[in-house]
Amino acid sequence: MQIIVQVALVIAVIIVSLALMRGGSNARHLAIRRIMLVLFACVAALSIFFPELLTRVARLLGIGRGTDLVLYGLIVSFMVFMATTYQRFRHMESTLTKLSRRIALDETPPPPGANGPLERKDAEPDRRLTPPAHGGQ
User: What percent of the chain is predicted at pLDDT more than 70?
Assistant: First the structure.
């Protein structure tokens, strides 16, 4: 029975690792992320098949149980995830603000009386819009 649970857990780790490998930013970050995911998958598989090894590593680090070591690793991983997600959202927010400003400027109609950059300075003023000089009819 225990081997079935172990195999199921290893398959789950592999599926999650493959899902996390998709996407990415530049080549360097993508390579680092893939290396870290492969290391994670190997350590996860070893800890599933040899839980006493994880407990020995935890005791070497001064932690009582292997499950506590996993919990501490999870906390650190979660904090890294929160920090990188915060940075990514800040960057996206800045990009969205710049894009919104550019669209607003591009779609703003010109002020009344201005014909934009095509207006000729030496053109004759439109006589239909100027009031008569003699005060009436």
Answer: 69
What are the helix (H) ranges across the chain? 2-21, 27-49, 51-60, 66-107
Q: Give Cα 117 to chain centroid, integer Å.
A: 40
Q: How far apart are CA 50 and CA 59, in angstroms?
A: 15
CA–CA dist 37, 18 (Å, integer): 9
Amino acid at residue number 77: S
CA geometry: angle 20, 77, 29, nearest 5 deg: 50
**pTM of the prediction?**
0.54
Residue whose entry in the numeric block shows the structure tokens 């000729």: 120
- With tokens 């079935």, the residue in question is 4
Q: Give the angle subtended at the CA of 72 by the CAs of 68 and 78, to the nearest 5°.
A: 140
